[in-house]
Amino acid sequence: MKRYYFCRGTVKKQAIRHVHLWGEKIFIFNNVPAEVCTQCGGTYFGPDALEQMDEIVAAAPEPEELIQVPVYFL
Fold first, then answer.
1. b/e for 10-41, b at 16 or more Cβ within 10 A?
2. Is the pLDDT reported for residue 19 higher than 90?
3. What digits encode the pLDDT tens for the residues 35-55?
4. DSSP readout, 15-57?
5. Which residues contact residue 12 at a Cβ distance below 8 angstroms, ignoring those fewer than 6 apart?
6. Rounded CA gap, 4 and 36, in Å?
7. Across residues 24-33, what is the average pLDDT?
8. Sheet containing 25-37: order of strands
9. What does the alpha-carbon distance between residue 50 and residue 26 come to, in Å, rounded to a whole number?
10. DSSP code at position 14
11. Angle at Cα 17 formed by Cα 55 and Cα 15, nearest 5°?
């Protein structure tokens, strides 16, 4: 992909941190290969990355790292 679908900005391949919400659970994936729009920041994941994330979410293995996340209510 050379141009992002929505804004037509230039797309650049890079590894990113992705926050994935699944029901009441939050998964954070590091070093996810993605194509990122340099104009709006929109991301596109290829099928291999999506399949890997789906497998991890479904299996819910022991995480490599745990972090605290603050929660705020408005």
1. ebeeeebebeeeeeeeeeebeebebbbbeeee
2. yes
3. 999 999 999 999 999 999 999
4. EEEEEEEETTEEEEEEEEEEEEETTT--EE--HHHHHHHHHHH
5. 35, 36, 37, 38
6. 8
7. 94
8. 11-22, 25-37, 43-44
9. 16
10. E
11. 90
**What value, to the nearest 5°, has the Cα angle with vertex 56 and ends 24 and 13?**
105
* 3-state SS string for 39-50: CCCCEECCHHHH
- Cβ atoms of residues 24 and 33 within 8 Å: no
Tokens read off for 59: 């299996």
Give the C-alpha separation, 19 to 30, whole Å. 9
Whole-number pLDDT of residue 1: 78
Q: Give the three-class secondary structure for 60.
A: coil
Q: Give the whole-angstrom CA distance, residue 58 versus residue 4.
A: 29
Q: What is the pLDDT of residue 24?
A: 87
Strand duo 25-37 + 43-44: pairing: antiparallel
